[in-house]
Amino acid sequence: MKIELKYVMNKAGEHIKPDCKAVIFGHVNPDGDALGSTLGLKHCLKHIVEKVDVVLPNSYPYFLDWMPDAKDIIIFDKETKKAKQIISEADLLFFCDLNNPKRVEDIAEVINEGDNIKIMIDHHPQPAEFVDYIISDTTVSSASELMYEFITELYGQNLNIETATCLLTGIITDTGLFDHNSENLRTFEIVAKLLENGADRIGSSMSTSIVSAAAKDNNA
Ligand SMILES: [Mn+2]
Fold it and tell me: How remote is the CA of residue 104 from the centroid of ligand 1, in Å?
């Protein structure tokens, strides 16, 4: 990992404190990587900060329902009032698997209302400068892969099973079971580390099989 990226990770990490309230956002029409990166971070931070929630602009596909804490995700277009309240009280806002406030749709209107620090963790090109810290790497397979680097840089190699499972799902779904975006050997090293930490390989792979089957159905 580039030294500059490590530096930004550590600078952003200085804001993560035990009395913090954090909200983690993923992109509209969430996929496996959006849930993987956001829920992966949530399962790490819930042992570190006072409160942490995942808020998504709209619903995620039914086949990601099994993911740890997926049912606790706050869907902004359904629970707008509750979501706005939580966002206004947050000290830390994380933007995962997205590079532009347009990708969170109506949520973008409320992210500047509270006194908060904004951190982006993403792999899409040309990140927009709407956050305090841009942790961006377009060479990684997925936001979940970059999230692994972020979490382990700050907190070491031991991940809980839920975090490992969520990050593995993000990597497997964004690479289409290593069919694309996975020419980098580092991806496979990280997958090995996630499996060592007890990641649920079957759940992660199953989600990808369903995505592939749905894509074939649509093309038929
Ligand atoms: Mn992604």
Answer: 14
CA distances 134 to 73, 125, 142, 154, Å, are 24, 12, 15, 16
Report the separation in Å between the CA atom of 26 and the middle of ligand 1, taken as the mean of its atom positions: 10
pTM of the model: 0.94
pLDDT tens profile 178-215: 888 667 899 999 999 999 999 988 877 777 767 666 66
DSSP-derived 3-state class of residue 90: coil
Q: What is the pLDDT of residues 59-80, one digit of tens each?
A: 999 989 999 999 999 999 999 9
User: pLDDT tier at 220 (50, 70, 90 boundaries)?
Assistant: very low
Q: Are 151 and 44 in contact (CB under 8 A)?
A: yes
Give all domains of the chain, ordered by start, each with its CATH number: 3-213 (3.90.1640.10)
CA of 35 to the centre of ligand 1 (A): 10
Q: Tell me the CA–centroid distance for residue 170 and ligand 1, in Å.
A: 7
Report CA(135)–ligand 1 centroid distance (Å): 14
Helix, strand or coil for residue 135? strand
Q: What is the DSSP letter of 56?
A: E
What is the CA(62)–ligand 1 centre distance, in A?
Answer: 18
Q: For 93-133, how does the pLDDT look when each residue is reduced to its tens digit (9 = 90+)?
A: 999 999 999 999 999 999 998 899 999 999 999 999 999 99
CA of 106 to the centre of ligand 1 (A): 20
